Amino acid sequence: MEDVVVHYKRLKKLVADKFQKVDVSLFDAETIADVLVHADLRGVSSHGVLRTERYISHILNKGINYNPDIKVKETGATSIQVDGDNGMGQISLKKGVEEAINIARDKGIAIAGVTNSEHCGALSYFVELAAENDVIGLAMTNANKLVVPFGGIDPFFGTNPMAFGFPAEENFPIILDMATSQVAYGKILNARERNETIPKNWGLDDKGQPTDDPESVRALQSIAGPKGYGLALAVDVLSGILTNSPFGLQIPPFQDFEKPRGLGHFFIAINPDIFTSKSVFKNNVDKLIEELHQQRTVEGVDKVLIPGEPEQSMKNKRLTKGIPIPKSIYDYLISDKI
């Protein structure tokens, strides 16, 4: 599949323009575009601009509210509940994260639960936002059934990702963003878009058998067998049950563009000052990074890398050289098609 290389600023504008065409406000459209292009800059195309057309279809079919009235309610001394009013997840979760960061600065820790939301994009965006504001970020979200529970055949949990962001003084923040499935479903979509095969440990067909054909994938596999299954369950409890959102089999499939999914997100912001000082914490994170970089490596590996470091390296390159996206996605973005 042929790629087109696009400068990140132009790509953001193309995506934001698409959302404005379906009456999303300029501010919200630019926020959505920022989150999507963030993923493509990091080389995580599964959560990048290829999602645009699906989001637009959800909006056009009334499955997503293009103009949500997001409400924030204090539920405790350091906790808030964000009602996303069935709007885009990027908007509702970012609102919760910003509020949590402000509370954590003052009170040391904050928890934000988001409900009535949608797919929020790459969680790395939100924990990176926390780290840039000198607080630790922990984010997770549930999703509709895609992943088979350990020992089962049929999908039950979503990819249910989690992410951590740790600020550093001299280095880039440590960013760990991972699905509890072998891969995010967006990687299956990306392989379909590019007409590529996939590793057999990614997905299962309708008989529960591993397949390398992305078109045959009907379910995903958990990471590390029962361990990934357990983590997916924990994410669903915190993101779904705790926030009073749908969970497990209750969440409508993303293919049904007319039904709101009501996804739940969960975010914790921690101010390092509650146990140490920001400067001591960040300098010790730098020390941890440097010591890991100095570890002996196996043949063929130059250096032990930190979670998020390969993505940061990709971002540095793509900020100057542009972002490659499938021509079919580019053609959609520059077209008059809604």
Measured by DSSP, the beta-strand proportion falls in: 15-25%
The order of strands across the largest sheet is 2-3-4-11-5-6-7
Q: Which structural class do the helices and strands define?
A: alpha+beta
CATH topology of the domain at 67-276 and 315-321: Ribosomal Protein S8, Chain: A, domain 1
What is the architecture of the domain at 67-276 and 315-321 at the second tier of CATH? 2-Layer Sandwich
Task: Describe the overall structure.
- The protein has helices spanning 8-20, 26-41, 52-60, 89-107, 124-132, 185-194, 226-241, 278-293, 309-321, 327-334, and strands spanning 3-6, 71-76, 79-83, 109-117, 136-141, 162-166, 174-178, 203-204, 210-211, 219-220, 263-270, 323-326.
- The protein is α+β, with helices and mostly antiparallel strands and 338 residues long.
- The protein has a domain at 67-276 and 315-321: Malate/L-lactate/L-sulpholactate dehydrogenase, NADPH binding domain (Ribosomal Protein S8, Chain: A, domain 1, 2-Layer Sandwich).
- The strands form three sheets. A seven-stranded mixed β-sheet has the order 2-3-4-11-5-6-7, with helices on both faces.
- Strand 8 (203-204) and strand 9 form a beta hairpin.
- It starts with a strand and ends with a helix.
